[in-house]
Amino acid sequence: xxxxxxxxxxxxxxxxxxxxxxxxxxxxxxxxxxxxxxxxxxxxxxxxxxxxxxxxxxxxxxxxxxxxxxxxxxxxxxxxxxxxxxxxxxxxxxxxxxxxxxxxxxxxxxxxxxxxxxxxxxxxxxxxxxxxxxxxxxxxxxxxxxxxxxxxxxxxxxxxxxxxxxxxxxxxxxxxxxxxxxxxxxxxxxxxxxxxxxxxxxxxxxxxxxxxxxxxxxxxxxxxxxxxxxxxxxxxxxxxxxxxxxxxxxxxxxxxxx
Length: 258
Hints:
By secondary structure, this protein is mostly helical.
């Protein structure tokens, strides 16, 4: 029975309290919440003043015991939390990371919802964080992307087929524009040997795709539709790149991309 509201409730309606013999709080959760609200209303600004004082004092360097694993650890193994009395989280960093990983694994929808909500409220900060992370982890992201594509070939093929069906008209128009720009970029004075050399680049790309099991493309060193200039569809303007390298380069000259 909760002595504050006088109601008899199940044990699940009472919070934990290790200082008591039963291990449960004497008041039910609802009464505890109501008490905290009333106290904060009577003491406005107390939490802010307390937090400011703790921030100015800094976190304690005294070793403490983690609430979850019950192991005594140094202060350096705890995250900062100025909402707590000593400026440190009640759980150690390892337990916090394990709990976060477990929540992401067992409740992925909650994490995605919270992430989308935060990005909606802070769009500029979200874009900045993403740009900084990609700049600092470019090679790692590329490696993970390549590994994922290799492990999900059938899934990607199915996705590409669905995309072709949904956007058939737009894709046909894009391919027509590409062919037209390539025809315009092909000089009429090319010799038969030079035309054969162009075909040889595409044969090399196809052979490397079969040999390495990694998709290769023929790329124009100077793009046909570059920003400041347009290259030609000639043998000395062609090179063979992997799909990942070609996507990274985009419609840029090598020096501009670097």
